[in-house]
Amino acid sequence: MQIRSTTAQDLDVFLRTVHTAFGRFPETPDAHGGGVWWSAFEMDRGVIAETAGRAVGTAISYPFELTLPGSVLAPAAGITSVGVLPTHRRQGVLTAMMRYQLGALRDSGEFLSVLLATEGGIYGRFGYGPATYTRRMTVQRAQSAFRTQVHWSAIEVLPRSEATEIMGEVYDRYRRTQPGALSRPHRWWALGAGMPPVAPAPRYVAVHRDAHGVPDGYTTYVLDNGTLTIDEVITADDAVFAALARFALDHDLVTEVVFKHVPTDHPLRWVLADFDAGPTSGEMDWLWVRLLDVPRALTARGWLTDGEIVLDVDDPFLGEHHRYLLTVEGGMAECVETTRDPDLSLDVRDLGSVYLGGTTPSTLVRAGHVKAHGSVVKADALFRAERPPHCLHWF
């Protein structure tokens, strides 16, 4: 078996292989080469596994920015299209591709890698840990009264084709302050890559404007048989979120509104007069994080609490084991190797889970994943973020 990097000439065989791996058939791009989920691929970032001259596995990465605690923007490789032909599974192809890809990312200077896991049992063994979570909320219109009156007169409705620039600008402002959010490069919007609302599927866009007429929030939705389904609500302002939600709930011909992506800590249920009118379901992991360079990753993010902690970090997939002293002062961190006794002993995938502040070290101690040598209260305080991380970008 040979693992190699891809070039532009490999696009057709890459697409054929990954579609076969997932049992799907390729869509036809538009006249500009866009409008399909894979149209933003950068083929110099791909990997192909070959056996006897035939492609049997694929993986590729996108160059994203990930928002870390403290509103720090850091480069992160977004891994996607990881697939192995059904005829070649459980033969070491995936492991070989992951090892090759992680090595190539490190060699190029990357220190963070992220992905969306199709199956939760696969990627932990490669050092990825679930770091953000999302859930669905369904509100019946008949029970949708709010505790206080909310006005949505500052909202206008546009077709998806007329709102691309507005959505791109609003999303970019939002993601810069939301821990766990990923960038959506202009190229994605221009090509209509990914899933709605970035993809050009039929959608309406409700745009909220501030007192000066500047767009400060939007939601995209589709109405079918009485169910109004919202792809996403994008705003950094909870009052704007409430206005956009009220607009959706006041829509004619609607019996229920489904919010597909709601942060686990979002106050929307508390806005409702009847708390039970907004049941949540389908809570799931979303963004998985892998630290490729632990000191660089820990010193890149912002910190809210001063202190120090010794982390004994095992990385079995890469065959590495290091002990680090993390010292935080004034929101900035220093991370150096040490021989001091550890406060926490953990796998690199568990470090990925706590890195954005969405999972507490104490939770993983209680689960038996992390060993605490003393109190874990200090670790919980150190790793917290200004608010729970949330990611709703699909790649």
Which terms would index this structure?
Nonspecific Lipid-transfer Protein, Chain A; Eis_dom; Acetyltransf_17; Aminopeptidase; globular; alpha+beta; 395 residues; transferase; single chain
Question: How would you explain this protein's 3D organization?
Answer:
It contains ten helices and 19 strands. The protein is an alpha+beta fold and 395 residues long. The chain folds into three domains: 2-110, Gcn5-related N-acetyltransferase (GNAT) (Aminopeptidase, 3-Layer(aba) Sandwich); 135-282, Gcn5-related N-acetyltransferase (GNAT) (Aminopeptidase); 293-383, Nonspecific Lipid-transfer Protein, Chain A (2-Layer Sandwich). Strands 1-2-3-4-5-14-6 form a seven-stranded mixed beta sheet, sandwiched between helices. Strands 8-9-10-11-12-7-13 form a seven-stranded mixed beta sheet, sandwiched between helices. The longest helix is centred in the first third of the chain and has 15 residues, at 93-107. It is globular, with a radius of gyration of 22 Å.
